[in-house]
Automatic annotation (TrEMBL):
SUPFAM superfamilies: NAD kinase/diacylglycerol kinase-like. The lineage of its organism: Bacteria, Bacillati, Actinomycetota, Actinomycetes, Micrococcales. It holds the Pfam family YegS_C. InterPro entries: ATP-NAD_kinase_N, Diacylglycerol_kinase_cat_dom, Methylgl_synth, NAD/diacylglycerol_kinase_sf, YegS/DAGK_C. PROSITE patterns: DAGK (PS50146). GO terms for molecular function: kinase activity; methylglyoxal synthase activity. It comes from the Bacteria. Residues 7-140 form the DAGKc domain. GO terms for biological process: methylglyoxal biosynthetic process. Keywords: Kinase, Transferase. GO terms for cellular component: cytosol. PANTHER family: METHYLGLYOXAL SYNTHASE (PTHR30492:SF0). It comes from Protaetiibacter larvae. This is Diacylglycerol kinase.
Amino acid sequence: MSPPDVAAARRAAVVFNPVKVDIERLRAAVAAAESASGWAKSLWLETTTDDPGQGQAETAAHAGAALVIAAGGDGTVRASGSALRGTGIPLAIVPAGTGNLLARNLGLDVSSGHLEATITNAFTGVDIAIDVALIQITRPDRSVEDHAFLVMAGLGLDAKMIAHTNPELKRRVGWLAYVGAIGRALVDKEVLRIRYRLDGGEERASRAHTVIVGNCGSLPGNVLLLPDAEVDDGVFDIVTLRPEGFGGWARVWIGIVWENGVLRRNAVGRRLLNLRSRPVRAMRYLRGRQFELLLDRPEEFELDGDEFGLVTGFRARVDPAALVVRVPRS
């Protein structure tokens, strides 16, 4: 059989974080997979501190790439996905971070030991469309910024935990680095006073310790924070947490880890939950396509597990089926 016409072959682009990946192993895996699939040599684009992937993915799109492979952490995936929104160019994920949040929610293998198989799947897999969350955040100086996220946006405990985590410890021990930060955040008794509006409805006032807006709901450690969230359902799932004291936090933790993470994953467990007469008062769930929130003071904010500084509010909306992602055929 004659070799493929390389000049006419499709070309991938690899957007990679040099701090997160084993670059030599990655290059070897991509070279083997692109050759076996009859693709041209890939374009390699390195992320920087100032640009974690959006500019590189835009460069790939302008260069005519038929596939963009994001090799890095959640920030690289978020930035690359933001740039590819609406282009129809598939995004393949090579998980190389601490959380690997979108990869987990897509059911992808997050083990670094399977890099070669992950790269093969990037060239041979199938494409699905997922939602993208668009968000406009307001800073304390009243300036506004537009961003996108693929997994979650959060205020309160969620964001403070990320802001208080030692970056070097996170690099060395991964998700365990958050344990100490969780402890410091849990003793924070300050409550968020919020005003919010869902899908353009009536403005409501509330108090909460944590507010999370999710495009999908799974976290590392079998934590199912948003049990009804789907990455392609066209709506947000929102949770507010307002526990009171240690007992309240214990009840929230049981609800998230045991009820959401274990019982909701099987039919018998779901029936048991349906028999429960009272919902967990400290947890409130909402669903909608648009969500606006105002705070009475600046608070730490996070997008897809990355610290995003202080905000006084935000407006978020869903862009349905706006991003194409590549997943294994199986």
